[in-house]
Amino acid sequence: MELKNAVAVITGGASGIGEAVAKSLAARGVRVVIGDMDVKGLERVAGEITAAGGQVAWTRCNVTSDDEVATLMDLAIEKFGQLNICVASAGIIKDGLMISTDKETGKVRKAMTTEQFKAVVDVNLVGSFITIREAAIRMVNNGYQGLLVPISSVNKAGQTGQLNYSSTKAAIALWPKIIIGEFQMRGIKNIRCVAIAPGYVGTPMVRGMNQEALAGILQGVHIGRLIEPEEIADLIAYAAQNEAIDATCLEITGGLIANGLAK
Ligand SMILES: NC(=O)c1ccc[n+]([C@@H]2O[C@H](COP(=O)([O-])OP(=O)(O)OC[C@H]3O[C@@H](n4cnc5c(N)ncnc54)[C@H](O)[C@@H]3O)[C@@H](O)[C@H]2O)c1
Predict the structure, then answer these.
(1) How close is the Cα of 204 to the center of ligand 1, in Å?
(2) Domains with residue ranges and CATH for the chain
């Protein structure tokens, strides 16, 4: 795909990986549309993209809402005339053990609530589904050349303390093969799907972690540091330009060989 003048929609575009992807694609000539719940963040990122000479539009969007996601996708077409890249980066964590036992009595004193589990599934899994579906509908109906990018994470071993989060990310790692299987059945050749599975990325969420826990995690990372959000953005830009990358989930972990155990 030619990046210059392509149009990308990025959810979670007000922070972290979504912000880096939006800025990086805009710097490469892509016209970007960002959606997020954080309006102040959207204004800031859009202002910075414009100041750097990029083209950007934004709207507040909760990815769990069919209507709001549809509006976000339509904004791309109204404003920039097409829709080629969709990065579903909106995501949340609500960490905790499934059951926490009391050190003295050995009895369960706290458990992950159903709400805590469902909230993460709702944003990370259902929200990504709505995002990718709404983009795919418009790409197919208008014949746009497209790339769908759902965001997974460490998805094989999972992460202790993240039963809710890891469940969503393991599922998303499967999506490219399932979605491209559908497209293959129906002869849809113009749209690719590539998931990205980052390891530990230096976004505000991770940098704000307990520093001791973070140091423990980095011991299991071969390059010995957090991945920069810009490095994730570079991989997405590369995948967009290389048609041979399709129906797969690309890991970018800095050589993560073990998961730090939650303390
Ligand atoms: N940071 C990491 O180490 C890491 C690693 C692997 C995968 N990921 C994944 O990458 C994605 C981005 O993570 P990040 O680190 O940039 O996080 P972040 O918190 O910096 O950004 C996430 C953005 O999503 C937005 N958001 C949350 N709920 C939303 C909703 N319902 N609708 C719309 N927007 C919503 C937030 O407002 C925020 O701006 C997530 O899916 C995350 O799971 C992150």
Answers:
(1) 10
(2) 7-252 (3.40.50.720)
